[in-house]
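Following the same procedure, the fold was encoded as tokens, giving this record:
***
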Amino acid sequence: MKNKINFLFLLIGLSIFNITESHAEGISVDAGLTPAQDRIIIRWQYRHIINEMGGNQLVMHMMPVVIAYGLSPNITLIMRNGYSVIGTNETIKPMQNRWMDPFLMGKMKLFRYNSRNYVIGLAAHAGSSFPLLKNSFSDTYSPIVGISASYRLKYWSFDYTSSYEWVNYNSKEKQSESRQFQMNLAISRNLILRKLNNLVLAPVQEFSIIRNNPGTGDVGFFGFLSPGFQLISPHIKLEALYQFAINPSSISSIKYGNRFILGMRFMF
């Protein structure tokens, strides 16, 4: 009986340790997902996006699902797919409902340093969408390459990601619709809720800057200032983020508006 009680306390202690060691990460960027070897993270999100084009307001409802698998201690495979609905506020009539092209990305650890007080990591990633569906645009891909860095200091987390994407690159025409350089910084802090079974509430603040270089037209900059939070348990994370558009009218054809993200992660 005594051994069973000791074993129960050991399990409880390990569970609390796992929660306090789980840090929040960026919510809007997939490259930050890093499961341990042979572990899986599944993230589902609902994204509500409002843009403006030609005086008309475009409302987008996107529901991406991301699966990240730890292939080895140094390599992570990330797969994404989802469904999108695009309409206008004026007509409330869907313009285009479709499954998004499947996306596959690999991430490789370049450097990691663990000390008693902090952890520093550096990784590179590369991936692309693939036109595998019936409604896909033929010979059109969206390749992306980038680098990410992370810094952990006790309850604090700092995650930086930069990437370069060829949006809707046509392999026959050898030309992309636009080229985008993106930078994202996410800062968060764990707050342990001891009265709620040691759950972790982590306020998150993201800063995003995007340089858009279309095939035709002027180069423009826009970005997002994004407060949010994550509620963390050993196997599930609930997350929410509101993105305030910065300099949204810098792109001549599209005015980027505010966005809202709501999601959850399952860890196995």
Notes: The domain at 2-267 is CATH 2.40.160.40 (Porin). The first strand starts at residue 40 and ends at 53. The first helix runs from residue 2 to 21. Residues 1-21 have pLDDT under 50 and may be disordered.
